[in-house]
Amino acid sequence: MEEHSGLITMKGNPLTLLGEIPATGNRAPEFEVLDNDLSPVNLGTYLGKIVIISSVPSLDTPVCDMETRRFNVEAGSLDPDIVILTVSMDLPFAQKRWCGAAGVDRVVTLSDHRDGTFGTGYGVLIKELRLLARCIFVLDREGTIRYYQLVREISQEPDYEEVLAAVNSNK
Q: Can you tell me whether residue 132 is helix, strand or coil?
C-alpha cells in the first residue's frame, strides 16, 4: 500500500497517509461503510446526486464538530439533489449519539471503522492514528471527482467557500 509522508500535520508534526488520493476527473473509488444503524452503505447509493464527502478524524473533537455543524447549516440552503456525507472512524453508535446531541440532521454520518476501505481508497487513512485526515471531495452525479481539498493541518477547518463554489460549478 502506498504511503505519503508530510502531506498533512497534526500540531505541526508530520503524519503518514495510506493509499492514494484519487485525482480530480477520475471516477471516485467504491467503498463500503456503515450508517448509524449498522447498515452497509456504498458510493452507488448516491449516484445521480452531487455528493460532498467530508472526511474527518473524529466527530468528538472540536474542529470536526464545528465542520460537521457548519456543513449541516449549509445543507439547508443546498438543492435537494446535493448530499453531504461525513465519514470518520468513529463507531456508528457514537456518530448517532453525536448527531442527536448536536442537532445534526441534514448531514449523513458514516463509519469507516470496520475495514477502512474509504480511508485507503481515498488516500486519507492516517497510519499513525488509524483515523481519517480532514479532506473534502466533491463528486458529480456520475461519481466523478470534480474537486478535493486536503487540509494540511488537521486542527484547521476546510475552506468552506471554496467547497461550495466547487459544488455550484458542478450543478
A: strand
pTM of structure: 0.95
Q: Are 136 and 54 in contact (CB under 8 A)?
A: yes
The set of residues, in sequence order, having a beta carbon less than 8 Å from that of 13 and lying 6+ positions away, is: none
Q: How many CA atoms lie within 13 A of 61 on its CB side?
A: 16
**Each residue's pLDDT tens digit, 16-67:** 999 988 999 999 999 999 999 999 999 999 999 999 999 999 999 999 999 9
Q: Exactly one of 51, 64, 78, 82 is catalytic; which is it?
A: 64
Q: Cα–Cα–Cα angle for 149, 33, 8, nearest 5°?
A: 30
Three-class SS state of 38: coil
**Residue type at position 70:** R
135 is an active site residue = no
Give the domain CATH number at 44.
3.40.30.10
Domain that holds residue 34: 3-169
